Amino acid sequence: MDWQAISAISEILGATAVVASVIYLAVQVRSSARSTRAQLLQGLHSVGAQLQDEMLVNGNLLRIFSRGCDGLDLNREDKARFEMMLARLFNNYELYFMLSREIQLPDDVIDALHRIITDRLRLPGVQQWWAAHPTSFSRDFVRWVDSLMQSQ
Question: CA 115 to CA 111: how far, in whole Å?
């Protein structure tokens, strides 16, 4: 075997190693992206579930939320609590919205978000709150929520 043959074999082996490395890295990046997406969704669900858990434990919060959503009168303190609960919910919704633009979330997650927000926006107290607080959120999110309200 001469040096040209050895050189050719070395080049083939080197090219094969580079291709194998690129494939390995692609698989690792894809796996990491899936894992990151799963962790983000888990964190978002935890934030949303936390408010529900608080309402399950504290019947007064559930009463305030229910009365506020129905558009019933609340005293000053209860109204402040209701507005804070909605702010927490809509901050969470906005985070979902922003992430859906940055990373590919599953379609069923996006569809569920649309349904949840649309259901909330049908409630008179939520509509009143939203009309009074759109400047608390990004313009794109406000436009998106407003479009959901108009499509009802």
Answer: 6
Contact by Cβ (8 Å): 93, 117: yes
What 3-state DSSP class applies to 152? coil
Q: How far is CA 110 from CA 70, 119, 125, 132, in A?
A: 26, 14, 24, 26
Indicate the pLDDT class of residue 79, thresholds 50, 70 and 90: very high
Mean pLDDT of 70-96: 91
How far apart CA 121 and CA 149 sit, in angstroms, is: 7
> φ, ψ for residue 103 (rounded to 5)?
-125, 155
Backbone Cα Rg of the chain:
25
- In this predicted model, which residue has the larger pLDDT, 77 or 53? 77
Residue type (1 letter), 136: S
DSSP string, 43-95: HHHHHHHHHHHHHHH-HHHHHHHHHHHTT----HHHHHHHHHHHHHHHHHHHH
| Residue 89 burial (CB count, 10 A) | 19
